[in-house]
Design a protein that fits this description.
158 residues, mainly alpha, 2 strands, 3% strand, extended, peroxidase activity
Length: 158
C-alpha cells in the first residue's frame, strides 16, 4: 500500500514525497537508527515535552521547583548508582552504565561535567576520549556518587 501511495506522486518534487515514506527510506545518521528527518522530528518532540511540562524537574518556576542545591544533587545521580543500589550481588559497574566498560590510560578529565565543557558529546563513534569508563566498586562514592537527601530535609510543603 505504501509503495502504491509513493508511486502516485511525481517523485522528482520533494514536496510530493509522503513524510513517512521519506523517513523510512532515509539513510540512518551514523550511530543512529533513524535518518535526519525522523531525528529532527523526534528531537523536536522531546524538546516540546521537556520545556512544555511545568513539572519537568529543571523547571525553576512554581511551587514544585527544586532549589539549586537539590538540582545539583539530582544531577549527581546516575544509572550506575541505581544499578549498584538495587541489584543484588553487584560489586562493580562502569560509571557510564549505558556504555561498554573500557580499559584506558589515566583519564584527562575527572568527571563527565569537566569532559562536557571541552568535548562534543556524544562523540560520533560513541567513545568518551580522555574519560575513563573502567569498572569501579559500587562502594566508591567518588566515582559513582550517592544522592544526598538532606537537601530535602527542611522543606515545608504548604
Amino acid at each position: 500500500m505504501f509503495l502504491y501511495a509513493a508511486i502516485l506522486f511525481d517523485s522528482s518534487r520533494v514536496e510530493d514525497i509522503d513524510p513517512f515514506i521519506g523517513m523510512v527510506t532515509e539513510e540512518p545518521i551514523r550511530g543512529a537508527a533513524v535518518g535526519p528527518t525522523a531525528g529532527c522530528i523526534i528531537a523536536h518532540q522531546f524538546y516540546a515535552l521537556k520545556y512544555g511540562d511545568r513539572f519537568w524537574y529543571e523547571n525553576t518556576e512554581g511551587l514544585q521547583a527544586f532549589t539549586d542545591r537539590q538540582l545539583r544533587e539530582i544531577r549527581l545521580s546516575s544509572y550506575a548508582r541505581l544499578l549498584c543500589d538495587n541489584l543484588a550481588n553487584t560489586e562493580t559497574v562502569q560509571p557510564y552504565a549505558f556504555m561498554m566498560p573500557q580499559s584506558s590510560p589515566r583519564p584527562r578529565y575527572d568527571s563527565f561535567v569537566e569532559f562536557s565543557r571541552s568535548e562534543k558529546y556524544p562523540m560520533e563513534d560513541g567513545r568518551l576520549p580522555g574519560l575513563s569508563n573502567q569498572r569501579v566498586s559500587c562502594s566508591d562514592y567518588q566515582a559513582i556518587p550517592r544522592l544526598n537527601l538532606n537537601e530535602w530535609r527542611d522543606m515545608i510543603y504548604t
